[in-house]
Specification:
The chain is of the alpha/beta class and about 280 residues long. Helices cover about 50% and strands about 10% of the residues. It is built from 10 helices and 7 strands. The strands form 2 sheets. It has a 5-stranded mixed β-sheet.
Length: about 280
């Protein structure tokens, strides 16, 4: 045996509570890839980047590189079908290659759409190439409470969470893909305050709503240095007045004072609020 070869050995499970598998062991079957299906409830459409990936797989198809798609049986219109939970690019590439008649697939127990969406999340949570937007849509399909709360907060704030980065319409007003930032916001501040923070940007018809914008508004409405000196309405008016010049001023401020861009953006908006209040007082 070569010196650089080592056997698979168990690690210590001290302090762990090993789970008994809740479902049966997967099985492998040989199937024609054109007999497989994809559920848009949790699977993404093929993007331009995905198409390029499929073409690369077709041109370099090699069983040594092959990773079996993960599938599950499901009922559709009275028929039993196989849905692809993970590996649709591989399946499409195989279906497109005239030299491939059948491929092995791993079939797991996940009969309902919710169970399938959860399986998709489990397969892709720590994988590159699957975006937070796609995982969020899958979590919604899986009836995940956190995902549902986030969606409800955004809806009540008048903000639309997009399914893909290519789905912006017009200026992107009241739209966002900043899933991670909104998740963190809801976790830190709770649904009510998170909604109020998003409403400031939504009311200003800013879009797309970005993570720095959300963090800036959060700072101004929650930080003791600012929150007692402005109102959400003041902030919305300031954002409308400055429009896109705020980002340019914030970039300069951030570079000059060595602070994060989102903080510089918040300070830029706050200064505009102070000027507006001074003008109102003079008029009174």
């Amino acid at each position: 045996m070569q010196n650089n070869v080592r056997p698979i050995a168990p690690v210590s499970i001290a302090g762990l509570n090993p789970q008994i598998p809740p479902t049966g062991m997967p099985i492998f079957e040989l199937v024609n890839p054109v007999d497989l299906f994809v559920d848009p409830a949790y699977q993404r459409n093929i993007s331009e980047k995905g198409t390029r990936q499929i073409r690369r797989i077709i041109e370099g198809f090699d069983w040594v590189k092959f990773k079996a798609p993960i599938c599950a049986y499901a009922e559709c219109d009275g028929q039993t079908i196989l849905k692809v939970l993970d590996g649709q690019h591989t399946a499409i590439a195989a279906a497109s290659n005239p030299h491939i008649e059948k491929i092995p697939v791993m079939i797991v127990e996940a009969e309902s759409t919710i169970a399938q969406a959860k399986a998709f999340i489990g397969q892709n949570t720590d994988r590159l190439g699957v975006t937070t937007l796609q995982l969020h849509q899958a979590a919604l399909a899986a009836a995940d409470e956190d995902a549902q709360t986030l969606e409800l907060v955004c809806t009540r704030a008048g903000v639309k969470v997009l399914k893909t980065t290519n789905a912006y319409t017009g200026t992107g007003s009241r739209q966002t893909i900043a899933i991670k930032q909104i998740e963190a916001l809801v976790s830190r501040r709770g649904p009510k305050l998170a909604r109020e923070i998003l409403e400031v940007l939504a009311s200003a018809e800013r879009g797309p709503l970005t993570a720095p914008q959300i963090k800036a508004v959060e700072m101004l409405l929650t930080d003791e240095e600012y929150c007692d000196k402005i109102t959400p309405e003041d902030l919305t008016d300031a954002i409308v007045d400055l429009l896109f010049t705020a980002e340019d001023e914030a970039k300069l401020f951030a570079a000059t004072h060595k602070v994060p861009f989102w903080r510089a953006l918040g300070i830029t908006w706050f200064r505009k609020c102070k000027k507006r209040r001074a003008i109102v007082k003079q008029a009174a």
